[in-house]
Specification:
- This protein has helices spanning about 15-35, 85-95, 115-120, 135; strands at about 40-45, 55-60, 60-70, 80-85, 100-105, 105, 110-115, 125-130, 145.
- With about 160 residues, the protein is α+β, with helices and mostly antiparallel strands.
- A seven-stranded mixed β-sheet has the order 5-8-2-3-4-1-9.
- The chain is elongated.
Length: about 160
């Protein structure tokens, strides 16, 4: 009587596709988490000109974030703009010493400003008193800010 030996043969071939898919999924999750940016909240007295998903945050003319959500402030009289800052600038911007204000069209006897917002809509401008990468360490991280309805006076002497 002849005995038949069963040869167990393990093959890696059926496992290649699931392993590659698992590695690709892990890479995508890692990339989305590390590049997601930082969520901050800026409280404004009035947010009527702000729009979720459409209002951009600008620093020196560049888009550095976007309003993702608008909510009522804790005092029930103000608006919180929830902002997602771009990953590459978030570490510098989300710190003490950063100011935010709404830019919208303004026409008075002495001033005409914000006319570019007529077509593109209002946006939030920011400025910071951080002047160098080394200076970043001297300012604590911050995720809640009090916003202004217009550009603070301290920034007018620096503009030109």
């Amino acid at each position: 009587m002849e005995t038949v030996k069963r040869q167990s043969r393990f093959s890696i071939l059926p496992w290649i596709v699931p392993i590659v898919a698992l590695i690709a999924t892990g890479w995508l999750v890692y990339k989305s988490v590390t590049e997601a940016g930082v969520e901050i909240k800026v409280n404004f007295k009035d947010g009527g000109s702000l729009k979720e998903g459409k209002t951009f945050i600008k620093y020196k003319g560049f888009n550095v974030g976007k309003v993702t959500l608008l909510s009522i402030g804790e005092d029930l009289r103000s608006i919180n703009a929830h902002i997602r800052l771009n990953h590459d600038v978030a570490d510098v911007i989300a710190r003490e010493g950063t100011d935010f204000w709404i830019v919208q069209p303004k026409v008075t006897v002495s001033e005409i400003s914000g006319l570019n917002t007529i077509i593109g809509g209002a946006y939030i401008e920011l400025d910071t008193n951080i002047t160098s990468i080394e200076d970043v360490q001297n300012h604590k991280k911050k995720f809640f800010f009090k916003g202004y309805s217009e550009k603070p006076l301290k920034y007018f002497s620096n503009s030109g």
